């Protein structure tokens, strides 16, 4: 039935090209960038220098070494390593460093049909270029896996992804924890590939220390689930946590597990109406370690060993 209403496309034409955004959380129009985020990133300094150099030069002086117009002008970074090693956090830190929005795209958004993948990727990357955003394709392994002789759909999917990468003009960050399965053709498409090894004791201590420093500056109050009374995050025994920094760093956890342990410990302390201390972290870390041990016992070997045997990673 024709209602006489204009189409969605005509409605869009009536809109202004720029719309101001209001931050509902901070109740402010202006974006507040975290300039210290990249500085506090737990990553080898030489790798941080490479990231900053390539990003900053690309942002301020778009250089091209390809004679074909519109081809080869983008910056594609590959961050590869095991879970919880800082890949996604690096992408977030880069966006804060250059003061650009981070446009996150996941494999679930894109799908696996070659035609729809090409359409969605072109649309997403167009948005990234229009916003001058840093585009993050998280866990991009499905699009990067090696082509096989009899899997025509996979071959088409990989070919589409290669073509889209070749003609993209902005900053694209890919993350992967299965780099061993990559198609050979992707090597030449990536300008900078950085490996994120498992965290060592020193790295874990730095991450714990960063989180402890953040606890000194709480954002808001929270309520006890028992009484409903406000319990403030600043009720933290900072000295107790710092005194046990070596013990915290000795626990073989990745970055995401450290964050989860701290979040659960805070909830435990609030529930008990106690200042957050090392004893709460001991309890939550113990639960994580028990779970990891059970998984390893079930599989008969560690995740790193499985990844090595499966040809996914060399760790």
UniProtKB/TrEMBL annotation:
Metal-binding listed as a keyword: no
GO molecular function: ATP binding; ATP hydrolysis activity
Record lineage: Eukaryota, Fungi, Dikarya, Ascomycota, Pezizomycotina
A Pfam entry, by short name: AAA_lid_13
Protein name (database record): P-loop containing nucleoside triphosphate hydrolase protein
AAA+ ATPase domain segment(s): 73-200
InterPro entries documented for this protein: AAA+_ATPase, AAA_lid_fung, ATPase_AAA_core, P-loop_NTPase
Residue ranges of the TM segments: none
Keyword entries, A-Z: Hydrolase
Gene3D superfamilies (alphabetical): P-loop containing nucleotide triphosphate hydrolases
Hydrolase among keywords: yes
């Amino acid at each position: 039935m024709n209602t006489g209403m204009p189409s969605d496309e005509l409605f869009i034409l009536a809109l202004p090209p720029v719309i101001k955004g209001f931050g509902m959380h901070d109740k402010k129009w202006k974006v507040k960038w975290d300039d210290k985020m990249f500085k506090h990133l737990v990553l080898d300094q030489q790798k941080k220098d490479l990231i900053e150099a390539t990003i900053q030069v690309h942002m301020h002086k778009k250089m091209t070494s390809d004679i074909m117009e519109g081809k080869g002008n983008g910056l594609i970074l590959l961050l590869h390593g095991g879970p919880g090693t800082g890949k996604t956090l690096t992408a977030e830190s880069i966006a804060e460093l250059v003061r650009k929005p981070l446009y996150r795209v996941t494999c679930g958004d894109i799908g696996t049909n070659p035609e729809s993948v090409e359409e969605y990727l072109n649309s997403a990357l167009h948005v990234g270029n229009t916003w001058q955003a840093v585009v993050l394709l998280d866990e991009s392994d499905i699009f990067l896996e090696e082509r096989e002789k009899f899997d025509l759909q996979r071959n088409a999917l990989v070919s589409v992804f290669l073509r889209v990468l070749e003609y993209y003009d902005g900053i694209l960050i890919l993350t992967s924890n299965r780099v061993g399965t990559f198609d050979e053709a992707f090597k030449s498409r990536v300008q900078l590939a950085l490996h994120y090894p498992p965290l060592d004791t020193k790295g874990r201590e730095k991450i714990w220390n960063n989180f402890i420093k953040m606890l000194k500056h709480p954002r808001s109050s929270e309520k006890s689930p028992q009484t409903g009374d406000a319990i403030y995050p600043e009720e933290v025994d900072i000295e107790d946590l710092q005194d046990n920094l070596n013990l915290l760093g000795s626990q073989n956890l990745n970055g995401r597990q450290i964050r989860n342990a701290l979040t659960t410990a805070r909830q435990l302390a609030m529930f008990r109406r106690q200042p957050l201390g090392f004893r709460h972290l001991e309890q939550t870390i113990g639960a994580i370690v028990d779970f990891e041990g059970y998984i390893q016992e079930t599989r008969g070997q560690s995740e790193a060993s499985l990844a090595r045997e499966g040809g996914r990673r060399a760790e």
